[in-house]
């Protein structure tokens, strides 16, 4: 079996309003970078849309979770189908660092940073999401990244994802407990 299958440890809280998740992804840094920056690849695990290749440029991510898995979208999440996040690129250092702002409700935007490092023939991906305004935002973001990264790993290994929402409903309570009050 593939060594990336057990690659699903919980993220950690590294500072107030900050969650960090690390994963080992199959393939070289350049391959993973393409899955972060190219819309046609990113839509297979997160969201489609353009990301500018310069600091200050626009980011537009449109989410279609119904395309990520074979299980149906739960009623409570259907309102997010087709939702678009708009942000700005804050760091762009190919193929190692990408950061951009992320809407956080009526609050100031949070920021997500992707850091890539070679790990033999694989890539260490570190996602750090900062400036999250509330515990609920931290839980939502951590569970979301956790499940989306599982989709990315499965896709990169050529496996189908059948249970995105089942995984989400299983992992969200773990993050609620981890993040606490």
UniProtKB/TrEMBL annotation:
One Pfam family, short name: AHSA1
Record-annotated membrane-spanning stretches: none
Gene3D superfamilies registered for this protein in UniProt: 3.30.530.20
The Activator of Hsp90 ATPase homologue 1/2-like C-terminal domain, residue ranges: 28-155
InterPro entries xrefs: ASHA1/2-like_C, START-like_dom_sf
Domain of life where this protein originates: Bacteria
Record family assignment: Belongs to the AHA1 family.
Name of the protein in its database record: Uncharacterized protein YndB with AHSA1/START domain
Organism taxonomic ancestry: Bacteria, Pseudomonadati, Pseudomonadota, Alphaproteobacteria, Hyphomicrobiales
């Amino acid at each position: 079996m593939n060594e990336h299958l057990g690659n699903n440890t919980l993220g950690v809280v590294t500072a107030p309003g900050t969650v960090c998740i690390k994963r080992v992804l199959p393939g070289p840094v350049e391959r993973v970078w393409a899955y972060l920056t190219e819309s046609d690849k990113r839509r297979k695990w997160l969201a489609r849309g353009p990301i500018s290749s310069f600091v200050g440029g626009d980011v537009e991510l449109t989410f279609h979770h119904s395309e990520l898995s074979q299980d149906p979208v739960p009623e409570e999440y259907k309102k997010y189908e087709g939702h678009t996040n708009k942000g700005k690129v804050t760091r762009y250092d190919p193929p190692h660092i990408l950061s951009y702002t992320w809407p956080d409700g009526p609050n100031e935007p949070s920021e997500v940073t992707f850091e890539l490092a070679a790990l033999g023939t694989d890539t260490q991906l570190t996602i750090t999401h900062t400036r999250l305004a509330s515990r609920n935002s931290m839980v939502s973001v951590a569970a979301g990244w956790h499940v989306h990264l599982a989709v990315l790993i499965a896709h990169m290994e050529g496996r189908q994802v059948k249970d995105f929402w089942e995984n989400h409903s299983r992992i969200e309570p773990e993050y609620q407990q981890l993040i606490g009050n």
